[in-house]
C-alpha cells in the first residue's frame, strides 16, 4: 500500500463527516484498521471511508456496533470489500431490518388496538387482556418481549 493511499485521522474524520473521536472509537472496537507512522501518527487506508459509511448507516437503521463488528470481522483489512462481500452484508442487514419491521408493525397494531378500545388498562381490558390472563405469562411487557425476533438474536 503506497503512502498516498494512507490518510491521517483528521482527513479521514473530515471526509467521513464524523468527529476524530468517533474514528478512534471505531479503531478501538476493531471496526476499522489503522497503521502507525514512524512518528506514531495514526494512518488509515483510504477504503476505511467505505467502512465508516457502512457503520454510520447501519447504526442509523438500528444495527448495533456489536452486530456490525460481527460482519466486518470477516472482511479483509487490506482492501475494500468486493461486490460479493457487500452483497452478503446487504442480505444480512435486509434480514435484520425485516425482523425489525415485523416487530414495529406488531407494536403499532397493538398500540392502535389498545388506544382504540379506550380503556387503556392492561388489567381490565376485555379486548387485549380479558380476565387478566397475561399475568400468567410473567412480569413486564411480555407481549412485546416474546416477539420471535428477540429470541432469534440471542
From TrEMBL:
Which InterPro entries does the UniProt entry name for this protein? DNA-bd_dom_put_sf, MerR-type_HTH_dom, MerR_fam, Redox-sen_tscrpt-act_SoxR
Give the record's GO biological process terms: response to oxidative stress
Residue span(s) of domain HTH merR-type: 6-74
User: Which SMART domains did the record assign?
Assistant: HTH_MERR
Instruction: Print the keywords alphabetically.
Output: 2Fe-2S, DNA-binding, Iron, Iron-sulfur, Metal-binding
Q: Which domain of life is it from?
A: Bacteria
**Which PANTHER family does the record match to this protein?**
REDOX-CYCLING DRUG-SENSING TRANSCRIPTIONAL ACTIVATOR SOXR, REDOX-SENSITIVE TRANSCRIPTIONAL ACTIVATOR SOXR
Q: What is this protein called?
A: Redox-sensitive transcriptional activator SoxR
Organism, as annotated:
Cryobacterium zongtaii
